[in-house]
Amino acid sequence: MNVEPHRRDDYNNSPRPPVLLFLNQAFNLRMTRFLIIIIVACSTAVLRAGPPDWPCSRHSMFPMNDVPTHVRDSSLLLYDVNHYGISLEVNDTSTFISGYTDILATALGQMEELVFELSSSYQVDSVFQDGERLESFTHLADLVRITPRVPPVIGEKFTVRVYYHGEGGQNGFFAGISNRTDLAWGQRVTYTLSEPFLSLDWFVCKQVLPDKADSADVFLTVGDSLMAGSNGILAGVDSLPGGKLRYHWKTRYPVAYYLLSLAVSRYREYSFYADSEFLPDSLLIQNYIYDDPQYLEQNRDGIDATAALIDLYSRLFVPYPFFREKYGHCLAPIGGGMEHQTMTTLNGFSFTLVAHELTHQWFGDNVTCASWQDIWIHEGFASYGEYLALEALVSPEAAREWMGRAHEMALTEPEGSVYIPEEDAGDEYRIFSAALSYKKGAALLHMIRYELGNDSLFFRTLSEFQLRYADSVATGRDFMEVLNEISGSDFGWFFDQWYFGQGFPEFLFTWWQSADSLVVEIIQSGSSPGTPFFRTGLDLELQFESGGDTLVRIRCDSPLMTIRIPMEIPVAKLVPDPGNWVLQRSEVIRKIVSAGYLKVSPNPFGEELNIRFLAGAGDREIILSDLNGRILERHFSSSGSYTLHTGELVQGLYFLKVNEGKETYTTRVVRQ
Ligand SMILES: [Zn+2]
Fold first, then answer.
1. Are 156 and 111 in contact (CB under 8 A)?
2. Least buried of 52, 94, 426, 437, by fewest C-beta within 10 Å?
3. How many angstroms separate the CA atoms of 152 and 156, rounded?
């Protein structure tokens, strides 16, 4: 996902409607007639099509002893979803939908009740188990609880069909289904965005990440002036009585509940095939764009760029994971994009947005995070996909600048971790923190690449991770284990500080030059007390007075270090990390040996520190700072001496810096 959240209060002002209790008393005659028609029309297509057409994923059963967090009801863990069949009537003027969801599942435990998730905004009209209508069910607190006539046998499959109608998710940013107008193009669109917990806003589901359905069919009935996009292959468009069309989309790849989608509008199709030597065949790129000739004219290049990106990522990671079906886009005023499997929903075709959502097809869709605490697997990687696209298809300089901006944003969260703490794992705003999950997440991958210093190992790690966890779920720790294996070294320290730890390193570099060498004093502290020190490599660029420069790579393995670099050429400037490889904040002080310029007394000092100037005569800025570079005293003076009153300082080491004209003189002083 790459969308800008609306104001937080949009979300807070959208409480769920009062919970409704239905014991099947509110059945509506008109709806009955509609339902019977649909049952006759669709039951053979969905219920009787049977499992042979639905290949099982390699990881179709999630482990019962590893109970995922944030499960709405523990009964959801008593079955494994094999197939979703969603059949809905949808329009482009409201979020009103009506229809049913079929769930084919396998019983994993003793089930006194069959429990599914569906927003309480909807009215449940009727419920069927294995084709037989059941009278006893409740719909309360977004859960449909069905009393089965005969409990499913453990290990055997059963089907449930739930008919419902209503208007869901009308408010707020995190709404599962929305109806909005794209103001720039005057197009009205109904679309879904279910990540992370809002599939229940439009279909009957089980919102548990490790339980991917093995396949899905989505039937969307719309007015004949509309088109409806969804996942997988468009199996057919049937004309129905009353000027309706029914789009049938089907996917036979495993899919997480929140990656199913619909988008309905006055679209036109603009599609083409992408060829890549890394794919077994040409891949259909199917785009549902606004039905306005101007739209295609203005966006053709952006849409066409998808082909080069498919080729790039198929080369860097593994071949596009859903190559037997397609990749596509549906336009919607979504404020960014959402990586619905094989059919991204997005609001435009900017290069980095298309790249981001496409990268998700590997990281997020093919390999999904095992819990929302590991959203890094989605957003850190997809954001890094933007970097990789710029690096390969635009210019290394554009990529470097992108990373510089990513660092700037990550630096706004000095206390945050990329890993989502347990207590925040239900908070969408924390999960989708742009600074932490996206930008710092991308910076982490870039730093792993830097630490490895070997692109072939880096991309082999990404490929192996894709192969190992294809169609399944994984954690950040799983990625680390693949990295350890491929690289042959233990990255535990890296993940402790950068993934689970908080903040980033802050450096104070003080450097000076003698006749034959350049000396750099490095003081490092963490921006957060949670992670006081970061072990890292770092590049220092030395710019020569005579022009030109050189790069020196150092290893920071201690919070206080002094390094000596043999160097006879006069250096004018030291620039830490010019390539934007390492997330860090730094201050650089050039120390001109101050012995002939000033004298401090006493040193160590107590209540007062006296400074006597031996040279210079201009206006001086006198600064006293601590080891973290925090300025404690700042004074201006042009006299030959100055006294700092230091009674309130605690014991320790301080820096006295004097700026006069273009020169800076620094000396260390100690409070006793
Ligand atoms: Zn994303």
1. no
2. 52
3. 7
Q: How far is the CA of 380 from the centre of ligand 1 (A)?
A: 8
Distances in Å between the Cα of 511 and the Cα atoms of 43, 383, 484, 571 are 77, 35, 36, 10
Residue 171's pLDDT is 53
| pLDDT tens, position by position, 114-136 | 999 999 999 999 999 999 999 99
Over the chain, what is the mean pLDDT? 88
What is the C-alpha separation between 654 and 146, in angstroms, rounded?
70
* Distance (Å) from CA 370 to ligand 1 centroid: 16
Is residue 388 scored above 80 in pLDDT?
yes
Ligand 1 center to residue 382 CA distance, Å?
6
Three-class DSSP category at 288? strand
Q: Which distant-in-sequence residues (6+ apart) come within 8 Å of 290 by Cβ?
A: 182, 185, 187, 265, 266, 267, 268, 331
Calculate how far, in angstroms, residue 247's C-alpha sits from the geometric centre of ligand 1: 27
Tell me the C-alpha to C-alpha distance, in Å, between residue 587 and each of 146, 479, 507, 535, 628. Answer: 63, 33, 6, 18, 9
pLDDT tens, position by position, 390-406: 999 999 999 999 999 99
Model confidence at 422: pLDDT above 50? yes
Phi-psi region of 210 (alpha: psi -120 to 50; beta: other; left: phi over 0): alpha
Q: How many angstroms is it from 198 CA to the middle of ligand 1?
A: 16
Residue 497's nearest CA partner among 584, 438, 563 is 584
Tokens of 105: 């599942």
Residue 601, C-beta contacts closer than 8 angstroms, at least 6 positions apart: 609, 610, 612
Whether residue 296 contacts residue 288, with contact meaning beta carbons closer than 8 Å, is answered with no
* Per-residue pLDDT, 598: 87
pTM for this prediction? 0.83
Torsion (CA) 201, 428, 70, 158 in degrees, nearest 10 = 30
**Residues facing residue 264 across a β-bridge:** 190, 228
Helix (H, G, I), strand (E, B) or coil at 315: helix
Per the listing, tokens 């890549």 go with 276
| Cα 406 to averaged position of ligand 1 atoms, centre (Å) | 14
* CB neighbourhood size of 630 (10 A): 8
Distances (CA, A) of 392 to 306, 314, 315, 579, 598: 14, 13, 11, 16, 53
SS3 at position 323: coil
Q: Report the half-sphere exposure of 28 (CA within 13 A, side-chain side).
A: 13
Task: Tell how far the Cα of 345 is from the centroid of ligand 1, in angstroms.
Answer: 11
Query: Phi-psi region for residue 328, left (φ > 0), alpha (ψ -120 to 50) or beta?
Result: beta
State pLDDT tens for residues 554-579: 999 999 999 999 998 999 999 999 99
Contacts of 30 (CB under 8 A, 6+ apart): none
Buried b (16+ CB within 10 A) or exposed e, 93-132: eebbbbbbbbbbbbbbeebebbbbbbbbbbbbbbbbbeee
Q: Residues of 48-57 as b/e, b for ≥16 C-beta within 10 angstroms?
A: ebeeeebeeb
User: 150 CA to middle of ligand 1, Å?
Assistant: 43
Residue 242's region, left for phi above 0, alpha for psi from -120 to 50, else beta, is left
**Local confidence band at 69 (pLDDT 50, 70, 90 cut-offs):** low
